[in-house]
Amino acid sequence: MLRLEMHADVFKIRRAQKRKYHGNLYTRKAVELALQTTEAAHFKQFFPSPPPVPTAPVTFDSITCTHNSLFIAGRYNKFSRTLSQTPWVIDGERRIKSSVQEIISENLQAASKAEGIKFSASGREDVDVRTLGRGRPFVCELLNPHRVKFIAEQVHSLECDINKSSKEVAVRDLQIVQRDELVNLKAGEEKKTKRYMALCICSDPIESRSLAELSNIKDLTLSQKTPIRVLHRRPLATRSRIVHSMKAWLLENQTKLCKKENVTLFKLDIKAQAGTYIKEFVHGDFGRTQPSLGQLLGGVYVDILALDVQDIELDWPPAIDYAQG
C-alpha cells in the first residue's frame, strides 16, 4: 500500500474532503496517479531496495474477497424535462424523485448483484433538456458483482427491462466493455461536436432573411465566462468555444403558438464544440457570452424556451443490431 507520507500533499486533501471522495483515502486511480509522478529516488526513501529484514511475522485482522468490477456501456435517451442525470440532492433534501442514473442502474445492479454502481457519461444535460437522436454514451461500473457472466441475449434482455421500466429514459447498444475502453468516453472531450435544437423567442420582429444569414456563419469562436447559473459549483473562468454551424427558421402560425403580441418564435439548429453553453449563447448571460445570438441578429434580445440534444458525435460504444444476431 502506498504510504501516506510519500505524497502527503495529495492524500491530505483526500483525507480532509471525505465527502467528496466518499471516504476513500486510497483508490486505484489515486494511487496510480501518485505513482506516475514519483521519482525513483523519492520512492526509495520510503521503500528501500533491498527492503529491511522483517523482525515480526505478518499479522492480519480479516480477509475480504471482492470481484473485479464489471463495466456495462450503452447510450441513453432522456425524454423528460423534469429529470436530472444523477440524483439531485441539496443540503440533504432530495429535489427530484428519480434520475437517469437510478433508472438505468436499478436493473443492472439487481441482475449482477453488485454492491454498488458508479455511473459516468459523455457530458451531461440540464434537467430541462431532452437527449434525443442516438442518445448520450454512458458506462456503469458494477462494484463487486456476484454475477459477472452475461451472454449477449441476456444483456439485450436487461436493455429491454430498463426500457420497460420507464417512459422517461430509454437505452440502446447495451454491452459489456473492458476497463481500458473507458478512455473512449472522455477522449477528445473538447473536440467532440454536439448538435442541438433550440426553440427561441425574441421580443422584436425578425425577418426570415436575417435568420437565413446565420447559416453563412462557420466556426464562430465564442468567449464564454462561467454561467451565472452554475457559478455556485464551478470556478469562474473564461473559455473559448466554437460554434461550427447553425441555421434558423421562423415557426408558422406564430399568433396561435404564442399569446403575446409582437414576439418572434423560431427554431435554431446548431452544431457546436462540446462544452459550449448553448443557453448562454442564445440569451447572452448578461454579456458574459460574446458574441451572443442576439448580437448576431442585429442587437436584439433572444431567449430560449426549450432545448434538445440531437446528436453527440462519439461513435462509442459500437452500435449493436440484435436482429442480425
From TrEMBL:
Question: In this protein, which residues make up the domain named Pus10-like C-terminal?
Answer: 71-313
Q: Which InterPro entries match?
A: PsdUridine_synth_cat_dom_sf, Pus10-like, Pus10-like_C, Pus10_N_euk
Keywords on record: Isomerase, tRNA processing
Is the keyword Isomerase assigned to this protein? Answer: yes
Give yes or no: UniProt keyword tRNA processing.
yes
Q: What class of enzyme is it?
A: isomerase
Check the record and name the Pfam families matching this protein.
Answer: Pus10_C, Pus10_N_euk
Per the UniProt record, which EC number(s) apply here? 5.4.99.25
Gene Ontology biological process terms from the UniProt entry: tRNA pseudouridine synthesis
According to the UniProt entry, its GO molecular function terms are: RNA binding; tRNA pseudouridine(55) synthase activity
What's the domain of life for this entry? Eukaryota
Which residue intervals define the domain Pus10 N-terminal eukaryotes in the entry?
4-65
As for family, the record states: Belongs to the pseudouridine synthase Pus10 family.
Specify the protein name.
tRNA pseudouridine(55) synthase
Give the source species: Cryptotermes secundus
Q: Which gene encodes it?
A: Pus10_2
